[in-house]
Amino acid sequence: MISGKVKAPAPVIRRLSTYHHLLMGLRQRQIQRISSTALAEMVEYNPVQVRKDLQLTGLVGKPKTGFLIDEMEDAIRRFMGWEAEFGAVLFGVGNLGSALLRYPWREEHGLRFIAAFDSDPARCNILVNNIPVYHTDYFATFSAEHEIHIGVVAVPASTAQKVADILVKEGIKGIWNFSHAHLKTPAHATVENAIFTQSLAILTRRLVESQVTSPGKEHS
Amino acid sequence: MISGKVKAPAPVIRRLSTYHHLLMGLRQRQIQRISSTALAEMVEYNPVQVRKDLQLTGLVGKPKTGFLIDEMEDAIRRFMGWEAEFGAVLFGVGNLGSALLRYPWREEHGLRFIAAFDSDPARCNILVNNIPVYHTDYFATFSAEHEIHIGVVAVPASTAQKVADILVKEGIKGIWNFSHAHLKTPAHATVENAIFTQSLAILTRRLVESQVTSPGKEHS
DNA sequence: TAGATTGTTAATCGATTAACAATC
DNA sequence: TAGATTGTTAATCGATTAACAATC
Fold first, then answer.
1. A65 and A155: one domain?
2. Is A210 within a domain?
């Protein structure tokens, strides 16, 4: 029987990623098991929610003892596809781009940068964190010779769609977008946006909301 | 009548931030109005959703003509609190931290970095993008002399809670957390997490999901 | 056995979408 | 006026939480 995998809701995936990080810490402290209730407390979630989340990864706990930390970590890692490695390329070696290249994604998060690309010749033909930076024009050639699963877009919004088009044309299935641009891609390509500004907007709005407004200052 | 402001759902705020960026582009191209329907198409949302979102900011459109772009931009900016400026400090001047300091938040997003702090003396007493970097120990003194609305946490997860505690102690109301750590803070402090790994998890999971599994490979 | 903890089923809550009336 | 577009009310959908049974 051929079966696709269950589409997990984004909030669940985010929480699972949080558990994963927490569990790594517990494992390092030689702790072997934990109950969903205790885990829930640590992250201030509802315990039933934690159990439901874990269930989705195929984990089963034992009444009275809870879950084995090693098993949990493995299950979550498998669920995310982090046991294998995703080959990745990055476009736009600016401040953010270089910071991303320098982060150790490979250790725990299944992401391996094999190259980066930039349209500015001054930034090309160097190594950043041992990752070669080439000119954007070289990408098609490079792509034909390497297995690339993920393209990271760290260019300005104005050129982001162009980069996305190139990625799609070369058959890259996953796009991690750090630009403001709303990328239009065919259905078979997955775009995930990591846009700081949206996160900042939530923070500043919450601050605005928490300010008690003086009489008349709030419009209708 | 004293009234707090409506607590907007996070998804709405994220979408509004998307509109805001799009509208800035339209304005630059001298376009003066747009219908919610057209806007919806550009970002591939439901038009009713767009209208509901805009309503929350107090915007009213005109049947047959739509919304004025200038008005929309202003309304969204006011809604986010971006007309005023939020004074901000950053902790952890590493790769990510410096990238954040170099981004022009001030222009459009109401965020003004007034200083950064690091526990590594080698990184202190320099300027990054004209923003002074001090030693963490100096923060309490600094805080007493400046109005700080937001603290940005860009330190490793292992020291993030410590930084959060310092921020809370100095009465900072908004914390923008880029570390993996789950920060525990009193209710009067708002924490917004901008955790890349969670975003990456969604992308990799979607890729895992889209792979059709061969017989027997998918467990139960 | 008793009690803690899991797992399941049902209820609630909130966000999105659909249907339609109002208006320029 | 007719038609496009807004705004509102109701229906649907999905995610979270509550209640409780199952199990070690």
1. no
2. no
